[in-house]
Every structure is written in C-alpha cells, then in structure tokens.
Amino acid sequence: MYDDFDYWFGHPLCESRHWGPWWFYLARLVIYEFAFLIVGFFGTLLAIGWILFKKYVPGACDANTGPDCGCGPFNALMAFILWSTFFNTYIYGKLHEKAPWLAFHQALPWALLAGGLVGWAFFTWRARWTRALLLLVLVPLTALEVKAHLQVNHIHADNNAELVSQQQANRDIRDMVKLVDHWAAETGLYEEFTIASEDEVEWPFPWYFRHYKNYKVKTADPKAMVQFGDDSTFQEMRAKLGDDFVWRKYLHRSAWIENSMGSSDLPGGTDLSDNISAYLNDDKFKNKSFRWLFWNYFFHRERWSDINPKYGYAYFKKERMPTLEPIDLPDGTLDRPRPLSPEVSLAGPKGADTRFSLPRGISEDPTGNLHLVDSLNGRVVVLDSTGTMVRTYGSPGGGKGQFKVDGAWGPSSVSLDSEGNSYVTDTWNNRIIKFDREGNSVLSWGNPGNVDLPYPNLFFFPRAVTVGPDGLVYVADTGHHDIKVFDGEGKKVRTIGERGISKGQFDEPVGLKFGPDGNLYVCDTGNERIQIFRPNGSFKDLILVPGWNQDKVGMEPFIDFLPDERIVVTLSKKKMFRVYSPDGESAKNFSVQNSEPIGVFVDSDGKVWLGDRIRSQVYRVSVP
User: Residue 552: which H helix or E strand, with range?
Assistant: First the structure.
C-alpha cells in the first residue's frame, strides 16, 4: 500500500510512466463526452443562477414554490457529485501520469452531474415550451454522443486514431492469432501448442492465447513452436533461436497523439491556448484548414498526422509446420525458391533488332496479343504468343503519346479494356495515357502532383493501372498512397484508401488487379501485404507478404492470378516470385535464372510471363 501511495503522490514530481500536458484529458472529454461536458458545465451555471435568482429576487420563491427554492438541485448527493466532477478533472490534469483510460474517472462524475441536472430541470420547469427547449438541446447532443460511442466501440474498434487508446493493437494481431490457431490445429497439438512472447510484444496475446496451456510470457523459448519478439531485439532473438525458425515482421501496435502532442501532431504543440488560437483563426496545418481537420476527425475519425507504429517479429519453428519447409530460407520468406526453366526467353522481340530495356508491366488484349511496357525504351511492345513483335506504340518524350524516360525509370504498367484500348502509366510525367487499338494516343490525364497536396486528378508517380470488370480504370497513385478510379474518359469516380498502416490504408501501393472473385487486389508494398477490396471499394481482407520491405525502394511488385485462383506476386529484390494459395494461408517461392522479376502476367493458357530487371529479358514459365 505504501508503494501505491508513493507512486501516485510522486506524480507531481514527474515520476510517471506516461507524460502529457494538463489538458490531456480535457481534449478527450471534448471528443468523447462532450454532451456530459456541455450539459454538466452550463447546467451547473444555470442552476447556480436559478438559486441566486430565487434567493435575491423578491417574490420569486413564492411564485414558484417547490423543493428547489433553497439549494436547487444541489442536495447532499449532488453536491458530492459536483465536488467529485471538478476535483477529478483538476487533479488528474495536475498529476503527471497521463493514460487515456484514466479519463473514465473524469467522465463518470460528469455523466452523473449532467444526468442529475437534466432530471432537476425537467422536474422544475414543467411548462411545455421549457421542456421542448430542453429536448431541442438534448436530443442532438445525445445522438452525437451515441455516434461517438458507436465509433470507438464498434465502427472503429481497431482504429489507431481513437484517442481513448494508449496504444492500439493493430492490423496484424488477429492475423497472427489466426495463423497460430491454424497451425495448432494442423500439428494436432491444439491447446498443447507451445507459444512464447517477449515483454514488449506481450499484450494482447495473453488474452487471445488464454486457452493455450503452454503459452509463456516475457521470455525467449527455443522450444516454442511460435515465438513473438520485439523489433529492438531482432538480432539477439535470431541468435537465441538459431536456424530452426523462420521469421515474419508484423505490426504489433500503434498510437496517434499518444502523449507528446508535439508540433508534428497539433499546430500549437503542448500549449492549449495556442491550439485554441489556431482553431479560431483557422490556421493552416498540414497544408489544410485546422478547423476542417478537427471537425473531419470529430465526425469521421480521420487523423491528420502519422501514427507511431510498433513492429514485432514472429518466429515460426520449421519442424512440423505443414506450410513451411525445413530448409535454408532467405530472410523473411516462407520457403526456398524453386528454380524454374523458362519455356520462352526473350532478350528482345522476335523479328526486331532492338533489345528490351527494363521490361515491366504486361497485359493481354482481346485478340490474345501481349502488351509489354519496354520501360527504358519508352514504348509499349505488342507481341504474339510466340514473342514475335506485332507492333509498338509510344515513344520517349513529354508530348502527346510519349513517355518520360528518366535515368533508370520510365513507364510502368499497361492494361486493356474490352474494346482493345490500352491505358499506360506514364509514371514520370505523372499521367495516364490512353491509346486506341491501333496504338494512337487519344487521351491523357493528370499532371505533376505533390505528395502533400493530393488534389483530384493529380498523380504523384503512378505505378500501376488496371481496367476493372465495371470498365473503370483503377490507378495505383503510389506517391499519394491511394487508388484513384476513373471512367474511360479520365473523369474521376472515387478514391480508395489513404496513407497509413491500418486496414484500407496504404504505404506506396504498386501492382493491382481484379481477382477471379471479382475483388480488387492491391500490392501494399511498404506495409508488406496484399489488400483485398470489394467492388464498391470497401476493405475485405488482407494477405501478409513478408519480404516486400526491400521492394519498396524499387517499387516493383506486381500481381496476377493462375487459372486455379492461386495468387502470383513478384519480389524482385529477393530474386523470386511467390505463389499464394487462394486463401493466402500458404505459399511457395519460385525463381528463374537468378533473375529479378518485376512485371508478372498470366496468359489465357495459364503460363506466367515475367519481366526481368537484371538482364532486361522476358520469360515464360509454367508454375507447378
């Protein structure tokens, strides 16, 4: 007990785990408990005014006899609640310990105070117009309060933008749990399956793994089937566990405006008056109106600055893991690449003298011809099924129908619609160019954008394009971290996603393609995952892709689907491509002549075509 008192009374001396300014909880009450705050504060002032009016206005009490003629609503219980409300608000603001969950100790008395005042008002002022006026104030406040509580508890249950969370277990936790449960069942160990976790990545695993008998916390256990480790002890953990484990990086938790409330989070930093001034003056913050940012967060929970992510590593023992193979593995991969011999290997188009130079995106037109983005040659090459050149379209430059070639970069991706029109990402000119079936340029849209000013129809180095089953054109606007959707004439229809690490958010997306299930699959490169979206643009699911962290530099992962619905993605920096099962639960890696595959396309015969970064060649292989 002495230690408890010593800990709490030590807070004014800066002995605390979590620091925050004195208005730390006030900001959260304004966001989440604003109805109680408004009714409690102004209701108290109104009640005090009513008491003074009754006391000092002659005849007021005689004309309005009732139990409130003396102390008004403040009987002994309400007086205690009033004292608790303002004392708790003050003392928790004064103490140095700042943790969001402690806001409960202020919110509860504010709620009791507001409820008592509302009951008193309805009992005292019985005229219809006064009660109607009260309802006119209370109903919208109550509706907004209910909305806020539904958002934090149900709509955005896993949203790291909610300020009532110190840190939020994020996108990968449930996927990790699902993976552990899956392997516990496949190994036949079930509750006997052995799991361990280090201190920094412990919570919330004790809850999810509560039914496992052999789950150990705060330890590194080489005998465990699955070990969760902190990102700061990666090298140490690898040494402890040895070569019996493969590993996967995952996002463990994250927080937004956790404690610092610094200049990068709020325009006024830790000063409340400066932030109020910025709001009243409608200052620009993050190149946008701060007033607009605040209300957009209040209603939609769209944060305006980056979060603070905490990554962890999951180590899986090779022994008895059906979806892993006990062999030497490249870092971050699921198994060693199986070498494949190409059935077709092209250094350039058959029947042409010019060699390929960094071949990238590949697509197929309605006649079965392949359209290959010959990136550093600044053109698109049309090939038949044997690799013979049919024609080319496009040329280097910045004019109509031309692609900008800049050092090691050029156009990236091509996709065709049902009429044979092709759409090409002219990446470094920040635009999309549309060609007709004869290769004539008929339209282009987009111009230089800015990563901080994502205005409509402006791109920031778009990397990939695909035409959906609905005929709309979907563009991976990589620098703006979103997917923009247009009709065939370049008119914007909608935007999918934004920058971030939560579900439905992106970190430099590249390849995208509609799957056999009609959903949109996006290579979310920086977040090392494939995100799956329904046709209406809503998030559906994700598949983790360990190893893409290195591909973020080259921005080259592309995606396609085999006839049996397996998913093919490229990992150029690891010199391989990976084939996932349709559910994403297992995967196999493949390589071709030590190449660095970039673009990938599965033709109508089920053959996989790959563009190679190292040799600037194109391969066709059969995947077993």
Answer: helix 551-554
**Which tens digit of pLDDT belongs to each residue from 520-565?**
999 999 888 899 999 999 999 888 887 786 655 566 899 999 999 9
Instruction: For residues 241 and 248, give the distance between their C-alpha atoms in angstroms, rounded to a whole number.
Output: 14
Torsion of CA 257, 263, 267, 271, to 10 degrees: 90
**pTM, rounded to two decimals:** 0.66
Residue of 72, 113, 71 whose CA lies nearest to 89: 113
- The confidence score (pLDDT) of residue 62 equals 53
Cα gap 526→362, rounded to integer Å: 22
Secondary structure (DSSP) of 417-445: -TTS-EEEEEGGGTEEEEE-TTS-EEEEE
pLDDT tens digits along 120-129: 888 888 888 8
Instruction: Return the number of other C-beta atoms located less than 10 Å from residue 376's C-beta.
Output: 20
How does pLDDT run across 48-68, given as a tens digit for each residue?
888 888 777 766 565 444 445
Mean pLDDT score across all residues of the chain? 85
Kindly tell me the burial class for residue 443, based on how many C-beta atoms sit within 10 Å of its own C-beta (0-12, 13-18, 19 or more): middle
d(C-alpha 364, C-alpha 604), whole Å = 9
Point out which residues pair with 620 in neighbouring strands: 344, 609
Structure tokens at 64: 């309005």
Are 474 and 464 in contact by the 8 Å Cβ rule? The answer is no
Give the SS3 label for residue 8.
Answer: helix
CA angle 141, 147, 148 (to 5 degrees): 90
> N- to C-terminal Cα distance for the chain?
67
* Interatomic CA distance for residues 318 and 17, integer angstroms: 39
β-pairing, 379-383 with 370-374?
A: antiparallel
Q: Residues in the chain with pLDDT < 50?
A: 63-67, 322-329, 449-456
Report whether 125 contacts 131 (CB < 8 A).
yes
Cβ-contact 585, 324 below 8 angstroms:
no
In the structure encoding, which two tokens stand for residue 437, read together? 């079936």
- 322-353: pLDDT as tens digits: 444 333 445 555 567 889 999 999 999 988 88
Give the pair of three-digit tokens for residue 269. Answer: 């930093």
**Inter-residue contact 251 to 309 (CB < 8 Å):** yes
